[in-house]
Amino acid sequence: MKDKHGPKRQRVDGEAWAMNELQMAFEEIVQQAHNDGKRLSEKQIERVASGTVQSAGRVYYRSLMERAPPMLVEHRKQQVGFERRNLRRWRKAFDLLETIWVCCEEIGREFNNYYRPIAVHEDDYVFEAMTYLHAKALLVGSEIICLLKGGFADGALTRWRTLYENNVVAALIRQEGQELALRYLAHSRVQAWQRMAADPNTDDAAQLQAQAEHAVAMFGDDMKRRRGWASQLLGKKAPTFSDIAAKCNRYTKGGVYEYASDHIHVDHRMFDDLLATCEAQENVLLVGPSNSGMVGPLTLAATSLVESTLFLMLHKPNLDRLAMLNSLLRMSKRMHKLATGLEKRTLEAARKRMSGASLPAG
């Protein structure tokens, strides 16, 4: 019997794919059965539909897996090309941020190596907390650098949010001193034991349990709660990060911190609310990297890395360390002007090239 729908139309390049070939074929089968006087029960129709999905799914799976290697080669080639162009645009700013990171890491490492024996002897809990927080800042800083080089300005800003929170905790501990530092360190043992409670039969479970129980006996049941290390200081059983920030005159409402927080959540944001689309001239549903919007994350990351190192060095200040901090502050202050200049010059050059390319040939 001739197909009254006619031959299947081939999809042309660039045309949106409706992904409805199987659906149309299935509906034709059901309709043909009806035309032939066959009555298909609902269960029969469901069985045919399920069999079609399973059979076609196996074919699609084999086809996609066979095509994956060359597809990934092409995809990775495009990513490498993008990263090369991204580096070309922002190289000076990336170099400055990495220079700051390396200097902060070397300063922190030498400070830790020199003072750790002394801190252990003196039970210096502030030193212990500060060295941990500085290491955490460096780790997050490394992640930010990778995200920026990969073309993810909004992701980098989100990681900066963690860097900001890290520095808020450091600021409060530096402000309040040894007891709060001890609470902060002990709290991690309680939280770790609570996480391990589901599987307590590990080698270090007994030691961790003893540490956790000692911390609770010393500081109370508040230590079992999130951020319980700050409960007594703030007079709250369940302090929020905003409470901690307010105690050391830091803020979480409005501004860049709130903007960075919004990116973590799934509330709707218009396309032009993203850093990565700030230079786009038309609506974009962004799903990959972009070399736009780097100025803010670069500037904030540089400032926060230096601030973290400052908190560490000011625990044992001397003229040498103050001079090193001065040099780091000079580097971080350069970043905004440098990155803004790069953004402006490269954007103008790109739009000039696009304008020239769109002119008709003479």
Automatic annotation (TrEMBL):
Domain of life, per lineage: Bacteria
Q: Which Pfam families match?
A: DUF5677 (PF18928)
Instruction: Please name the InterPro entries in this protein's record.
Output: DUF5677 (IPR043733)
**Protein name per Swiss-Prot or TrEMBL:** Uncharacterized protein
